[in-house]
Amino acid sequence: MKKILIIMLCLTSTGIWAQSSEFGIKGGLNYGSTGDINGFDEAREDFPDLKNGESKAGYHFGVFGKFGISGVFIQPELIYTKLTTDYGAFDYDLNKIDLPVLLGVDILGPLNVKAGPSFQYITNNEIENGTFKIGNVDKDITVGYQLGAGLNLGNLGIDVRYEGAFTDNTAFSETAEENFSIDSRPSQWILSLSIAL
């Protein structure tokens, strides 16, 4: 009996959320940087031009779904993101697949706010330098967070969000003689344009 009640509750909940649903595509710009260089002072001995990471513009694109009722919604997304950070002596390139799962609330007309976890899978990260190459990370998959606000105008949507990290994720050299490493988890601002299909 308990199993039947649980199944009925799940089906009812799914039906409620499905009362308002949409799917679409989205894309836009992101502006941010990855984290600190580990052993910065020692690294500057080999790279005098080295500096703390400076933000640069990148881009993202992907798909989204939106399921809700009575002004409350869940918005899962699947997004490809490209981000580059300027460390002076070199640039650090990061490509990743993001899966944010956001809980949102319509607060005033077309305006909404949303927040939730963002799962990140790194597909490529590298520094090309004459001395060494970064290419490995501690964890291919990490969890951060996103929060922000959106504006819906018919089938068009505009989002502004901030993405941050819960923990570091160290990217390190592929060669054993190098101890050079960077925190690869980004902090960035995200501006998106979406179209519901």
Show the helix and strand layout.
Layout: H1 2-17, E1 20-33, E2 37-38, H2 40-46, E3 56-69, E4 72-86, E5 91-108, E6 111-128, E7 133-137, E8 141-153, E9 156-165, E10 170-173, E11 181-183, E12 187-196
Describe the structure in your own words.
By secondary structure, this protein is mainly β. Helices cover 12% and strands 64% of the residues. It has 2 helices and 12 strands. It has helices at residues 2-17, 40-46; strands at 20-33, 37-38, 56-69, 72-86, 91-108, 111-128, 133-137, 141-153, 156-165, 170-173, 181-183, 187-196. Strands 1-3-4-5-6-8-9-12 form an 8-stranded antiparallel barrel. The longest helix is centred in the first third of the chain and has 16 residues, at 2-17. It is elongated, with a radius of gyration of 20 Å.
Shape designation: elongated
- One letter per element, helices H and strands E, the order comes to HEEHEEEEEEEEEE
**DSSP summary, beta strand count:** 12
Distance between the termini: 41 Å
* Mean pLDDT across residues: 84
| Residues in helices, as a percent range | 10-25%
Give the neighbour order of strands across the main sheet. 1-3-4-5-6-8-9-12
Give the oligomeric state. Answer: single chain
Strand-residue proportion: over 45%
Low-confidence stretches: 1-17
Derived structural class: mainly beta
Biggest sheet details: 8 strands, antiparallel, barrel
What's the helix count?
2
Kindly provide the radius of gyration, computed on alpha-carbon positions and rounded to a whole number of angstroms. Answer: 20 Å
